[in-house]
C-alpha cells in the first residue's frame, strides 16, 4: 500500500458534519436530495444561458429586419410573425406539459422519500425495542440464576441444613440486581416440609432480625429477641385476611423469608406467606421441577400477583394498579450436581412499564419516535398497551389501543413462554402446555406526521418557477438548442456508464463535479468538473499523443486529485487458508466456482450489513466500513460482517465439497481487522480505480497474515471500539504478541464467533481460554482440530468423520453418475439399445461368470486395447448428458456400490478412500484438459459430413469414448481397495494365501480388482451393470481397461515397469502421420495407463503443501509398519530423504515429461512438470528437516501405543461400522454364490484370506 503523493489534495471528512448513514440497502439514497437540488440549479443555469442566447439572436434578427424593412411586404411580415407565434406556442405547450409532468413526478418521489424515512425509522425503533427487551429478560434470568448459585454456595460454606439458612448479604446482591435490571421486588422462599414446619416457625421468629434489617447481637450464641410483628406461623391470605396454612394444606410450604428491598413497618407482614398457596406459583414451581431452570408467569395485575392483598394502608405494594407485572421464578438447588434437589425459590417481579422504559433515546423533532406497544397473552387473552414517546413510557390502558390504520405495519416478536397447565400422559410422562407472551409495536399518527416535510410542495413550486423561466427562454432557436442538448446527453450517458462501472456513487459524483460549482453551459446535468474528469480518465498517454504525462498539456495532472481522508474506518482482510494448495489440484473452472460462490455470499452479507467491498485480490477479500459513508458504528458493523463471513464460509465450503471434491470442506478462512484513518480515492491512469491507502490498511493486512486459521484477529483499537459498543464478550485477548513488519510487537485480540459469544453471555465466564481450548490452529494446508471457532461442532469426531466420508462418497458417486450419463447419451445417439433380454444378455452373463472365475488378472493385461472409432453423426445428435435420466434404481445402486467400495478400504494413513478420491479428482482434471471432440467437429467438412480422422486420432480416441472415461474413473476409485499398508513384497510374506492366489505378482492390485469386481457382480447391482455395458464387447473392453489401469499403479514391479517402458517407446517412436490404427490404439492404451499413474502420485506434482501432506501420510504408513514388524526392509526413515530424490529423478519427473511429450493433456502437463521440479528442489532443501519431524512425531505416538491420530480412530470406527452394514447387505449374495465357490478352491482361499483377522488394517488395533 502507498501513501498519497499530494497531501494537500486530501480533504478530511468530519463524521460530525456528515449525513447519517443509510439504515438499510432498501432505503432511499441519502444523496437524492443533493441530486434534486443540483438538478434544479442546473436547470436555472440552463435557463439563463437560453435567455442570453435568445436576447443575442433576437437582437441580430431585429437589426436584419430593420435593414430590410423597405424590401419586405406586410404579408411577409405577417407570415413571419405567424410562424414565430406558432413555434412559440408549440414550445410553450411542451415546456408547460414538461413542467407539469416533472412537478408531479418530483412531488410523488419526494412524498415517497418521506414515507420511506418514516417506515425505516419505525422499523429501526421496533428492532431496537425487541433487542433490548430480550436482552433485559435474559439478563434478569441470568442474575437470578447467579444469585441462586450464591445462596447454594453460602449454605454449603455455612454447613447449614435446609431450610434453616439465611443469606446475610442478600440485600446487597439484590440491590445491584434491582438497579441493573428493571425489577421491583425480589423474594427468597425456602421449601419447608411438614416435618420441619414447627422448627421453621421457631427459626423464623428467632431470626427475624436477619430479614428485617434490625441489628443482630455480635455474639452468635446470644438469642435474638423475638419480633411480634411477623407471623409466627406459615399462613395464606383468605379474603385479605391472614389464616394459618395448616387449615388448608399439610405441606410442603414455601414461606417468604427474605425480601428485597428489605421490608419495614407493615411490609413485614409478607414474611412466612406461603407462596404455594397461590395457584400461579404452584404451576410455576411444578414447571421449574421439570425444566430445572427459571420460568415466567402470564400477564398479571399487581393485585393478583401471588395473591397479596393491596390495602390502601399497606405501603408495601408490588406495583401500581394498571401497571401489569410478570413473575420470574428461579429454583434454588441443594448442591451443584445435575440431580440436586430443589430446596427453595427466588422470585423476581418485573413491571412491563419498566421493561419498556428508557430504550429509545430522545432526540430532535426530526427523529421523533412515538409508538404504541401492545403486550398480549395468547392463552388468557389479556393485552395491555403502552405509549412510548422517545425515552418516556406510559401505561395507556387495557386492550390493544393502537391506531388500526397502521395494522399492516405491525412489528411482532415473541417475548417469553410460560406453563399454563401440567398434565400427566398415559405413559406417566409429564407434559407442559405452554403459552406465549408477545409484543406488537405500531406507529402513531403523530410520528407519521413528524416525517411529513414541505419538500414535495417546495419541489412543485420550484418546478413551476423554472417552467416560467424556460417559457421565456424557449421562444426562439429551439432547433439549435435541441441539437446541442442531444449531443451533450449522449456524451453524458457514455461518461456515466464508464464511471458507474468503476467507482462508488460518491466518487462518481465527485468525478462529475469536483469544485461543486455548476458551470453555465450545456443542456444536461453536466459541469466542467465532470467533463475534465472524464477527459482525464480517457486521455491518451504520452506514447500515443507524444505529450508526456508530466507535460503541461496534460490537464489531468493539473486537476485536483479525488481523495479523502476518512478518520474513522475499519478495514477487513479475509484470506482463504489452503487455497493455493487446493487450487493446484483442480481445473480453473472449479477454482473460479469456489471463489465466485464464496465471494458472492460475502457480497450479499456486505450488502445487508452496508459494508463497502473494495476489491478481491486472488483469494483475498478486502472490505471497509466508515467510507464512503462515514458512520460511528463502523467497528461493530465490521465485527458482525466478519463473524457472518466466517460462518457463511464454512457453510459454503461444506456444501461445495460434494461438487468440487475432497478437501473443499477443510479450507479455512483467516481474517484480520483494524480500525483507524484511511485515505481513499481514485488512482487515475490506465484502468484507474478506487483504492485505499494508509497505515490502517497495512496493519489490517499484517493482522490477516499473522492471524490463525478460522479465526478473526482484530487490533487493540478495533477491540476497544467493539467494547465501547457494549459487546465486550465478543473479544478475547490473544495470549502472545504479534510481530508485524514495520509495527513491531502488537497486542491483538480474537473476535469470537456467534456461538462462542452467546455462550460467554449466558455462562458469564471470564476464563480467557474457555472458548478456544478445542481449537488448534495451523498454517495453510496443515491439519486442523476445529472447536468452537470457525464452525459449530455439535457432533462427535466420529460423526464428523462420517459426515465428511459421506460427502466424499456423494462426490465420487456424482462424478461416476455424470460419466454414466455420457455413456447413455452416446448410446442413445447411436441408436444402440441396452441388452436386457435375449442372446446378448445371456452372452454377457456367461462372460461375467467367466471373468469372476479368473483370479489372476495379470493374464488379462493387454498391450493394445481397441478404442471405438469416432462417430461424428452420433456426436452431433447427442443430447446434453445432464438431461439424461438414468432412473432411480441405477443412481441408488451406484451410490450403494461406492459405499460398499469405501467400506472395503482399510483405514491406512495413505492407502485409504480419501486418497482414492484424490486420485479420482486428478483423473477428472486431466481428462478435462484432453483435446475434446468439440474442437474436432469445428474442423469438419460440412459438405462431406465427416471428420478428419487425423484430428480425431490426435486424442487417440480417449475422449471419444465415454466408456473409456468411466473405466478410468472406476479404476481410480477401486485401485487401493483392501490395501494392507505394506508393499507387495511384505504382503506376500504376511499373507501367503493371497501370495499363492496371485502368483506373488502385484498382489495388492489384483486383490483390489478381485474384491471390487466381486462386489460389482452382486445381483443387487444388476441395473447398474446393464447401464455400464449392454453387450459382451463393451463388457470385455470395460474389464480390460480396469485391469490395465489398476495394475499400472504397481510401479515398483521392475518387470511390469520395463514392459510399460517398451510399449511407450514402441508407441511413440512412430509419428502420428505414419501411425496405423493399431498404433493409435496402442498410444491410447499406454496414455491411459500413464494417466492413472500420474494421478496416483499426483500429489508430488501439485502444490508443496499437498505433496508434504500425502508424503507424511505415506511415511506414517511405512514407518508404522516397520515399527510393528510388518516391514521386512530397513528403517524407512534412514533412506526416506534420498529415496524421495531418487523417486523424483527416476519416476516422477520422467512421468511428467511423458505427459508433456504425448501432447494430449494441454497446459496440465506443463503444470505437473513445473510442480514436480519445484517440489524436488524444495525437498532437497528441507527434506531432512521434514523427515526428522516425521520420525519424532510418529515415533512418540507409537511409543505410547496410541493410534496415529484421533481422525484415524474416528475413520476406523466409521469404516468398521460401514463394513458391517455392507457385509449384512451382501450376505444373501455370498450364500447364492457358495455353489460356484465350491468349484474354486483358490476363491475359497482368497475369501478366507480376505476375512482373516491377522491381516486387518495396521492401525486398527
Layout of strands and helices, then pairs:
Elements: E1 11-12, H1 32-67, H2 74-158, H3 170-180, E2 185-190, H4 197-206, H5 209-212, E3 235-238, E4 241-244, E5 258-260, H6 279-291, E6 295-296, E7 325-333, E8 342-351, H7 352-356, E9 370-377, E10 383-389, E11 392-398, E12 411-424, E13 430-443, H8 445-450, H9 455-473, H10 478-500, H11 505-512, H12 528-538, H13 542-545, H14 555-558, E14 563-577, H15 579-583, H16 588-609, E15 612-617, E16 620-625, H17 634-660, E17 668-683, E18 689-693, H18 695-705, E19 711-715, H19 716-724, E20 731-733, E21 738-740, E22 744-746, E23 748-751, H20 754-763, H21 797-829, H22 838-853, H23 872-877, H24 888-904, H25 913-929, H26 933-937, H27 949-953, H28 962-974, H29 984-990, H30 992-997, H31 1003-1016, H32 1022-1028, H33 1032-1048, H34 1054-1068, H35 1077-1096, H36 1104-1123, H37 1132-1157, H38 1163-1199, H39 1206-1225, H40 1227-1232, H41 1234-1238, H42 1241-1250
Parallel strand pairs: 1-14, 17-19
Antiparallel strand pairs: 2-5, 2-8, 3-4, 6-7, 7-8, 9-10, 9-13, 10-11, 12-13, 14-16, 14-17, 15-16, 17-18, 19-23, 20-23, 21-22
Helix pairs in contact: 1-9, 2-9, 11-12, 16-17, 17-21, 21-24, 21-25, 21-28, 21-39, 24-31, 24-39, 25-28, 25-35, 28-33, 31-33, 33-35, 34-35, 35-37, 36-38, 37-38
Distance between the termini: 55 Å
Q: What is the 3D form?
A: globular
**Main sheet?**
9 strands, mixed
Q: Could you tell me the radius of gyration in angstroms?
A: 42 Å
Poorly predicted regions:
1-78, 309-320, 514-553, 760-794, 932-937, 942-949, 1201-1216, 1221-1261
Amino acid at each position: 500500500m502507498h501513501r498519497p503523493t499530494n497531501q494537500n489534495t486530501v480533504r478530511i471528512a468530519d463524521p460530525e458534519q456528515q449525513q447519517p448513514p443509510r439504515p438499510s440497502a432498501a432505503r432511499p439514497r441519502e444523496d437524492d436530495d443533493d441530486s434534486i437540488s443540483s438538478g434544479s440549479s442546473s436547470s436555472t443555469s440552463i435557463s439563463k444561458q437560453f435567455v442570453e442566447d435568445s436576447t443575442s439572436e433576437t437582437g441580430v434578427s431585429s437589426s436584419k429586419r430593420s435593414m430590410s424593412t423597405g424590401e419586405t411586404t406586410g404579408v411577409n411580415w405577417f407570415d413571419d410573425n405567424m410562424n414565430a407565434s406558432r413555434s412559440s406556442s408549440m414550445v410553450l405547450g411542451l415546456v408547460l406539459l414538461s413542467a407539469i409532468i416533472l412537478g408531479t413526478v418530483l412531488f410523488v418521489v419526494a412524498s415517497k422519500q418521506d414515507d420511506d424515512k418514516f417506515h425505516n425509522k419505525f422499523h429501526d425503533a421496533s428492532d431496537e425495542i425487541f433487542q433490548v427487551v430480550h436482552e433485559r429478560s435474559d439478563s434478569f434470568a441470568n442474575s437470578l440464576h447467579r444469585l441462586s448459585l450464591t445462596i447454594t454456595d453460602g449454605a454449603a460454606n455455612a454447613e447449614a441444613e435446609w431450610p434453616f439458612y439465611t443469606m446475610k448479604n442478600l440485600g446487597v446482591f439484590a440491590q445491584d440486581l434491582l438497579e441493573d435490571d428493571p425489577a421491583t421486588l425480589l423474594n427468597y422462599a425456602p421449601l419447608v416440609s411438614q416435618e420441619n414446619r414447627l422448627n421453621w416457625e421457631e427459626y423464623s421468629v428467632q431470626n427475624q432480625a436477619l430479614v428485617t434489617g434490625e441489628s443482630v447481637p455480635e455474639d452468635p450464641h446470644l438469642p435474638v429477641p423475638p419480633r411480634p410483628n411477623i407471623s409466627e406461623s406459615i399462613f395464606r391470605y383468605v379474603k385479605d385476611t391472614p389464616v394459618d396454612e395448616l387449615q388448608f394444606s399439610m405441606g410442603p410450604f414455601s414461606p417468604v423469608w427474605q425480601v428485597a428491598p428489605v421490608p419495614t413497618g407493615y411490609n413485614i407482614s409478607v414474611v412466612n406467606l406461603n407462596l404455594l398457596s397461590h395457584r400461579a406459583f404452584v404451576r410455576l414451581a411444578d414447571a421449574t421441577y421439570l425444566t430445572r431452570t427459571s420460568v415466567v408467569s402470564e400477564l398479571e395485575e399487581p393485585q393478583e400477583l401471588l395473591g397479596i392483598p393491596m390495602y390502601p394502608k399497606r405501603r408495601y405494594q408490588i406495583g401500581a394498579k394498571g401497571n401489569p407485572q410478570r413473575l420470574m421464578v428461579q429454583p434454588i438447588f441443594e448442591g451443584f450436581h445435575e440431580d440436586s434437589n430443589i430446596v427453595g425459590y427466588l422470585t423476581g417481579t418485573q413491571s412491563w412499564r419498566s421493561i419498556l422504559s428508557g430504550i429509545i433515546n430522545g432526540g430532535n423533532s426530526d427523529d421523533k419516535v412515538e409508538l404504541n406497544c401492545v403486550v398480549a397473552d395468547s392463552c388468557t387473552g389479556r393485552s395491555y398497551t403502552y405509549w412510548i414517546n422517545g425515552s418516556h413510557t406510559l401505561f395507556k390502558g387495557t386492550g390493544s389501543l393502537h391506531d388500526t390504520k397502521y395494522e399492516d405495519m405491525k412489528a411482532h416478536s415473541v417475548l417469553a413462554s410460560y406453563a399454563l397447565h401440567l398434565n400427566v400422559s398415559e405413559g406417566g410422562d409429564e407434559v407442559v402446555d405452554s403459552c406465549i407472551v408477545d409484543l406488537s409495536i405500531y406507529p402513531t399518527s403523530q410520528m407519521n406526521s413528524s416525517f411529513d416535510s414541505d419538500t414535495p410542495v417546495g419541489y412543485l413550486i420550484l418546478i413551476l418557477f423554472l417552467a416560467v423561466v424556460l417559457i421565456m427562454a424557449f421562444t426562439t432557436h429551439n432547433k439549435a438548442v435541441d441539437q446541442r442538448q442531444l449531443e451533450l446527453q449522449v456524451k453524458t450517458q457514455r461518461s456515466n456508464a464508464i464511471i458507474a462501472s468503476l467507482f462508488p456513487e460518491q466518487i462518481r459524483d465527485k468525478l462529475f463535479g469536483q469544485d461543486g460549482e455548476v458551470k453555465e453551459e450545456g443542456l444536461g446535468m453536466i459541469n466542467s468538473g465532470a467533463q475534465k474528469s472524464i477527459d482525464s480518465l480517457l486521455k491518451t498517454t504520452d506514447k500515443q499523443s507524444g505529450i508526456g504525462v508530466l507535460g503541461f498539456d496534460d490537464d489531468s495532472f493539473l486537476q485536483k486529485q479525488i481523495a479523502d481522508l476518512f478518520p474513522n474506518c475499519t478495514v477487513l482482510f479475509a484470506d482463504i487458508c489452503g487455497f493455493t494448495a487446493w487450487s493446484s489440484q483442480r481445473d480453473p473452472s472449479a477454482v473460479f466456482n469456489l471463489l465466485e460462490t464464496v465471494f458472492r455470499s460475502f457480497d450479499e452479507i456486505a450488502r445487508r450489513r452496508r459494508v463497502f467491498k473494495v476489491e478481491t485480490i486472488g483469494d483475498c477479500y478486502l472490505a471497509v466500513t466508515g467510507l464512503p459513508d462515514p458512520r460511528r458504528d463502523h467497528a461493530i458493523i465490521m465485527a458482525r460482517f466478519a463473524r457472518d463471513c466466517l460462518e457463511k464460509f464454512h457453510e459454503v465450503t461444506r456444501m461445495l465439497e460434494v461438487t468440487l471434491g475432497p478437501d473443499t470442506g477443510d479450507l479455512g478462512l483467516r481474517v484480520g481487522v483494524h480500525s483507524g484513518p484511511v485515505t481513499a480515492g481514485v488512482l487515475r491512469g490506465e484502468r484507474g480505480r478506487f483504492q485505499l491507502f494508509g497505515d490502517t490498511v497495512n496493519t489490517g493486512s499484517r493482522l490477516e497474515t499473522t492471524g490463525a486459521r478460522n479465526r478473526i484477529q482484530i487490533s487493540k483499537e478495533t477491540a476497544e471500539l467493539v467494547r465501547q459498543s457494549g459487546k465486550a464478550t465478543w473479544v478475547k485477548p490473544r495470549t502472545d504478541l504479534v510481530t508485524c513488519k514495520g509495527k513491531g510487537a502488537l497486542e491483538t485480540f480474537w473476535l469470537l464467533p456467534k456461538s462462542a459469544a452467546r455462550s460467554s453471555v449466558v455462562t458469564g465466564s471470564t476464563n480467557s481460554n474457555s472458548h478456544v481450548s478445542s481449537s488448534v490452529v495451523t498454517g495453510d494446508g496443515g491439519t486442523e482440530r476445529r472447536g468452537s471457532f470457525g464452525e459449530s461442532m455439535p457432533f462427535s469426531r466420529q460423526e464428523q468423520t462420517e459426515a465428511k466420508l459421506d460427502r466424499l462418497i456423494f462426490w465420487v458417486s456424482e462424478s461416476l453418475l455424470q460419466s454414466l450419463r455420457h455413456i447413455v447419451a452416446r448410446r442413445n445417439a447411436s441408436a444402440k439399445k441396452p441388452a436386457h433380454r435375449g442372446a446378448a444378455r445371456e452372452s454377457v452373463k456367461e462372460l461375467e461368470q467367466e471373468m469372476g472365475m479368473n483370479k489372476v488378472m495379470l493374464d488379462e493385461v493387454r498391450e493394445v486395447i481397441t478404442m471405438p472409432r469416432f462417430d461424428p453423426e452420433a456426436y452431433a445428435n447427442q443430447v446434453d448428458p445432464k438431461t439424461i435420466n438414468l432412473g432411480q434404481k441405477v443412481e441408488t445402486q451406484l451410490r450403494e456400490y461406492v459405499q460398499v467400495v469405501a467400506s472395503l478400504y482399510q483405514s491406512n494413513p495413505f492407502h485409504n478412500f480419501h486418497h482414492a478420491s484424490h486420485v479420482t479428482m486428478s483423473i477428472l482434471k486431466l481428462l478435462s484438459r484432453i483435446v475434446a471432440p468439440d474442437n474436432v467437429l469445428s474442423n469438419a467438412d460440412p459438405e462431406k459430413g465427416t471428420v478428419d480422422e487425423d484430428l480425431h486420432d490426435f486424442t487417440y480416441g480417449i475422449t471419444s469414448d465415454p466408456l473409456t472415461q468411466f473405466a478410468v474413473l472406476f479404476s481410480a476409485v477401486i485401485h487401493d481397495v483392501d490395501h494392507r499398508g505394506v508393499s507387495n513384497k511384505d504382503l506376500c510374506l504376511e499373507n501367503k494365501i493371497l501370495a499363492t492366489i496371485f502368483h506373488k505378482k502385484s498382489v495388492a492390485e489384483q486383490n483390489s480388482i478381485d474384491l471390487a469386481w466381486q462386489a460389482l457382480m452382486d445381483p443387487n447391482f444388476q441395473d447398474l451393470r446393464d447401464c455400464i455395458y449392454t453387450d459382451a464387447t463393451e463388457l470385455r473392453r470395460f474389464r480390460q481397461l480396469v485391469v490395465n489401469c489398476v495394475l499400472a499403479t504397481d510401479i515398483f514391479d521392475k518387470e511390469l515397469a520395463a514392459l510399460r517402458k517398451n510399449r511407450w517407446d514402441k508407441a511413440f517412436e512412430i509419428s502420428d502421420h505414419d501411425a496405423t490404427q493399431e498404433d493409435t490404439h496402442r498410444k491410447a492404451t499406454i496414455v491411459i495407463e500413464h494417466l492413472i499413474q500420474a494421478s496416483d502420485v499426483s500429489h508430488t506434482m501439485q502444490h508443496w503443501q499437498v505433496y508434504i501432506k500425502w508424503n507424511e501420510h505415506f511415511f506414517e504408513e511405512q514407518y508404522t509398519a516397520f515399527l510393528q514388524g510388518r516391514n521386512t526392509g530397513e528403517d524407512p526413515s534412514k533412506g526416506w530423504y534420498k529415496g524421495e530424490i531418487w523417486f523424483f529423478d527416476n519416476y516422477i519427473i520422467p512421468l511428467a515429461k511423458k505427459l508433456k511429450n504425448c501432447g494430449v493433456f494441454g497446459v496440465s502437463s506443463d503444470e505437473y512438470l513445473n510442480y514436480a521440479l519445484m517440489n524436488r528442489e524444495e525437498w532437497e532443501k528441507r527434506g531432512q528437516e521434514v523427515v526428522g519431524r516425521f520420525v519424532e512425531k510418529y515415533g512418540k505416538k507409537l511409543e505410547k501405543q496410541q493410534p496415529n491420530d484421533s481422525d484415524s480412530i474416528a475413520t476406523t470406527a466409521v469404516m468398521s461400522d460401514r463394513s458391517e452394514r455392507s457385509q449384512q447387505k451382501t450376505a444373501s449374495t455370498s450364500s447364492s454364490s457358495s455353489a460356484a465357490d465350491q468349484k474354486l478352491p483358490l476363491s475359497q482361499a482368497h475369501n478366507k484370506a480376505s476375512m482373516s483377522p491377522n491381516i486387518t488394517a495396521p492401525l486398527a488395533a
